[in-house]
Amino acid sequence: MFPERFSNLPAYAFPRLRSLLDAHAPGGEVLHMTIGEPKHDFPRWIVDIIAEHADGFGNYPVNEGMPALLEAMSGWTHRRYGVDLAADTRFMALNGTREGLYNAMMALCPETKRGKLPVVLVPNPFYQVYMVAALSVGAEPVFLNATRDTGYLPDFTALSEEVLNRVTVAYLCSPSNPQGAVASRAYWAGLIGLAEKYDFRIFADECYAEIYRDGPPVGLLQVAAEMGADPERIVAFHSLSKRSNLPGLRSGFVAAGPESIKAMKQLRNYAGSPLPMPLQHAATAVWQDEAHVVENRRLYGEKYRMADEILGNLPGYRSPEAGFFLWLPVPDGEEATMTLWQETGVRVLPGAYLSQEAGGVNPGKGYIRVAMVAEKEEMARGLNRLRDCLYG
Questions:
Q1: Whose CB has fewer CB within 10 Å in the chain, the N or C terminal residue?
Q2: What pTM did the predictor assign?
Q3: Distance (Å, rounded) from C-alpha 59 to C-alpha 381?
Q4: CA 272 → CA 147, 168, 264, 334, 366, distances in Å?
């Protein structure tokens, strides 16, 4: 009575964490450093915009995004990446990028490739929706370990011809969650070259692209335009959740080739969940404003420096290039998480909860993920407790 393809899914990371910790008392003031939910202030002026357009809650929303919203997304893409993409044919508004990362697979992944079961490439560790989307279309997820040896990004060039010939979609998160690694221009170009040679699409999850230290990460749309790549191979996802501290607004977008967008719009007509119109008006204004993003990045810059000061002398510590997670090496992530909780009250996430075993190895097992989203003072307390408990 139930589909077998979902029968072996591991428990989702956060229910799994609750099962691990909640039967045990915390060893101090509880400090949450688990989930990547931004805590910096969002642009408060959106409240007035929502109120101004509140009558729109009485209407069905525009399914693919109202024209002004799509124009705002197109304008932001031009300013950020220097590419000009038609708003009406190259963009679709999303109810958060998780929805898009899942439904794009439904719309764009073929049932077979060269008469064989399709393969979907997934970086390991990974955002769990990648795996479930692959399973939902009957594809085989192939996990590519992203470790220190590979620069914390998957090595797509190490795949065999047999696997590459079956690939239909390759997911890549840059800046990566959880390691904070950034794909270079050369890295993107190499992946695009593989996609053109072996006939597959790239799904680029770039939700952390506006949180960085030194310079803005290069993006898939940018490199594809420079190469003159087939736009139907390029599917890029962006969000206001991290950029603008608005995870509850549920506003993101997908940019892709016109035929890909057409296919996604068609599926959305039947199975989509569009953003309410007052929120579309708010999102339009937020995509057009950069001042709050600059301030957000400044606050994260202070946290990067704080983490370096507190943890920088620890063996194996690596300061992230971008994003807002620390990926810290420990002998065993689950044991370290339990010890930290019971002795200090600091709550982190075992790295193994974000990864799968591949090649006989779970690349997250010897790590914990620490979210740097709390206010600075709280984060300082948490990092100092963590250092003294696990590394003291």
A1: N
A2: 0.97
A3: 47
A4: 36, 23, 9, 37, 39
